[in-house]
Amino acid sequence: MAEIAQPTGADGARARVIVAGATGYAGALAAQLVWKHPALELAEITSRSETGTALNELYPRYDVPLELSELNPAYLQGVEVGIVAYPHGAAAPVVAEMRGMGLVVVDLSADFRLDDLPTYEKFYGPHGDPDLFDGAVYGLPEIERQAVAGSSLVANPGCYPTASILALAPLAEAGLIEDVVIDAKSGISGAGRGGGETTGFTHVTENVFPYKATGHRHRPEILEKLNKLVPDAGAEIETLTFVPHLVPVDQGELVSCYVRTRTDLDQSELDTMYKARYAEEQFVTVRNAAPGMRDVRGSNQCHIQVLAGDDRVVVFAAIDNLWKGAAGQAIQNLNLMLGLEEGMGIS
Which helix (H) or strand (E) holds 25? Predict the structure, then answer.
């Protein structure tokens, strides 16, 4: 590819990055964020389709003029970092190849998010590289910051788990969650660029509907990560119900969590718990009013409100599913992995 000028850091030193799978919504945004990042250089963008097309022709709202090409192993020899935005199953072999060549990798698929291989195979099918399955750190920085910073392979969380875990982490860490119902709503970009006819305009507009109300793939991810936060086995979450809904917006996500707690908590106790937990987090804001999708659109922010409800504690969390739920969080993780300021390029 021809050299094209892009932003440069103050010292001129930038890590070279390849984004594999840059035609999907998350991959395209990841490429844009790398392109504008002061300490990164977007060296290659690849796709299994749309080759020969410049990304800013495919996505005019992004100003990345590089052409998409098929992934070539030769590309990996001249880069230090890989962002993989392939679907589950297809991502693992690419991640393994990159790690075999010494690249630092952030994987946006589900291939390395879970701790248990049989659980992964139950929900996703055969794993593309089981030998590497347990080699990743779960990339939710507000929960795993030190581990992310010391890792060479990070599994970027799903968008629903990101919002749900951040909403519930303070209660889980205190061992207070007995059971929880998560009512989740996402814009249609959450279904991906190939979402199918259920994401078509005539089906989605002026409509809200649940999907995969049982057996959703993100439920085991949410439950596994929350139970890792509890202080002892006796405080593990007994039941978790997760029901996602599609709403007629292009991007954004809101989760409403209804929690039965092991002890009663008043509003003052909840406010103190949540504000103390997230006081130092630049991408999490605890609010006194209910958050909305529009409040966080185009940002890496998560806005949370917690309430002492009538019978349950109620927690709301809003994120942009393409930012904090995918590409923005990938850059947040990558900043930590490379020893950069955590918010560089996304704040």
Answer: helix 25-36
Q: Where are the alpha helices (DSSP H) in 278-316?
A: 293-296
302-308 and 313-319 beta bridge pairing = antiparallel
Please tell me the distance from the alpha carbon of residue 23 to that of residue 50, in angstroms, as a whole number: 8
Q: Which of 17, 29, 39, 128 is nearest to 345 (CA)?
A: 39
Sorted by where each starts, the structural domains of the chain and their CATH numbers stand as 15-135 (3.40.50.720), 160-324 (3.30.360.10)
Confidence of residue 188 (pLDDT cuts 50, 70, 90): confident
| Residue 135 amino acid letter | G
Cβ proximity of 279 and 217 under 8 Å: no
Question: In the structure encoding, which two tokens stand for residue 305, read together?
Answer: 């409100």
Within 10 Å of residue 96's Cβ, how many Cβ atoms? 18
Query: Which residues fall within 8 angstroms of residue 101, CB to CB, at 6 or more apart?
Result: 76, 77
Those residues whose C-beta lies under 8 Å from the C-beta of residue 339, and which sit 6 or more positions away, are 149
Dump pLDDT digits (tens) for 72-105: 988 899 899 999 999 999 999 999 999 999 999 9
Record the tokens describing residue 325, joined without a space: 């739920």
Q: Which residue is it, tokens 């599994």? A: 155
What backbone torsions phi and psi does residue 121 show, to the nearest 5 degrees? -65, -30
Looking at the annotation, which residues are catalytic? 159
Six token digits for residue 133 = 């399955």
Number of Cβ within a 10 Å radius of residue 32: 21
